Amino acid sequence: MNDFGVTYRELRKNRGISQAVVCKNLISRTTLSKFENGKLIPSVTTFIELLNRLDIGFNEFLYINQDYKLNEKQRILHLFFSLFSNQQESHLLELKKKCLLLQENSFSRTIELLHYIINSLIELSTNDKKDIPCLPKIILSVPWENLQKYSSWNMDDIKLINCCLYMFPLETSIHISNQLIQQLKKYDDLEDTNSLQCAIYLNITLLCLQNKQFSYAETVIDKAIIIAKKIKRYDYYSLAIARKSFLTKDDKLIKKALDIAALFEDKFSYELIESEKKLFFV
């Protein structure tokens, strides 16, 4: 953490803020100088207030301190959560290697749980039927056993749990998805959670289609469509209206979904919709 002080000093000088202004009613200039020269580590409370006086948040400061790069854990999670579909096997295999390498040199409970989830998704990606086989569900029992013990879920937990919903009976999956949506509301003032909400609704819709629970699926997919339009996510929107077409047997909707994917030259979305069409548009 000693280099935090160096980064702080550079940011303070860059913003033209004097030591006297930063230290006002908080710490002495001597203490600040020791911190900026790597000779002292302030308390967490003091450090956060020092950042506030530069109008910089903690996460942004960490990112800047890492030379405007994500650390390896952050990079792995970012790559996983940015996958449009968790059935992109080649990407999953590459992420699995990264998880194993990280755990050899360090430890992260989140990465440990993600490793189980990736293994389950790799198994699932080879399944081309409507029914989900047992092995992917069995693999997920380990991360879920840990996640369900938490008194509350953070953003990464919510994203991971959304990837585990297929291990449960549909009724349980729906119940957990509603819990996830409620947890997300706590983060409304921190960041835009609409994309994650949409992903949860899309996920539940797929599970409903697989279990032939069409009535509930229609309610959920309509929410996904509204959110996807609001946040202008063409990929989520095209997939949402495709799944809506599977429920309503509307030829025009499925054509529209495929046309949108083709318009944006999104080969993966196009192929995903086509593959689901073969399963559900019957």
Oligomer: single chain
User: What's the architecture of the largest domain in CATH terms?
Assistant: Alpha Horseshoe
Number of domain units = 3
If you consult CATH, what is the topology of the largest domain?
Serine Threonine Protein Phosphatase 5, Tetratricopeptide repeat
* Poorly predicted ranges: none
Q: For the residues shown, what is the average pLDDT?
A: 92
Structural class: mainly alpha
General form: elongated
How big is the Rg?
A: 23 Å
Total helical elements:
16
The total count of strands amounts to 0
Largest sheet, in brief, is: none
| Overall helicity | over 70%
Order of helices and strands: HHHHHHHHHHHHHHHH
- Intertermini distance: 59 Å
CATH class of the largest domain: Mainly Alpha
Give the amount of beta strand, in percent: under 5%
What does this structure look like?
It is a single chain. The chain contains 16 helices and no strands. It has 282 residues and is mainly alpha-helical. It folds into three domains: 64 residues, Orthogonal Bundle (434 Repressor (Amino-terminal Domain)), CATH 1.10.260.40; 81 residues, no CATH class; 115 residues, Serine Threonine Protein Phosphatase 5, Tetratricopeptide repeat. The longest helix is centred in the middle third of the chain and has 17 residues. It starts with a helix and ends with a helix.
